[in-house]
Design a protein that fits this description.
With about 140 residues, the chain is mainly beta. The protein has one domain: Beta-clip-like. The strands form 3 sheets. It has a 5-stranded antiparallel β-sheet. A 4-stranded mixed β-sheet has the order 3-4-11-8, with no helix packed on it. It starts with 8 loop residues before the first strand and ends with a helix.
Amino acid sequence: MGKGSGGKESGGKGSGTPTRPCWEVRASPVHGRGVFATRRIEADEVVHVAPVLLFSDEEYEHLAETLLVDYVFEWHEGGVALALGVGGLFNHDPKPNLRYELCDDDDPARPAHAYVAERRIKQGEELTIDYGDDYAEWQGWI
């Protein structure tokens, strides 16, 4: 994956020096809250790694009756996932500046998404992902 991190340790192997995230959460003109770049982010830089909680289709039926329905997404192995960290706060844009990738961790007990810059992102720019056409249609956006 790309270089950088959204709050993981760096500063040399074993240094234990935490890095400051390259993002902050604040009010968004798109929808409620959003995530914004606090500095320039380079193309292919990992912005954030969000662990996910997985739910079965049966559990989703219960989630669908709650506010969480707006924060879960289809998981590639079936069911749905809830992204932790700021993973659930990236707003939708059909031309996003981030993509999300399944982390290449071989441990199925630790599923996660990495949010990676599609292009160079300016300081202050809102960080967005594409929720997909199905979600956009469900919301009436298309």
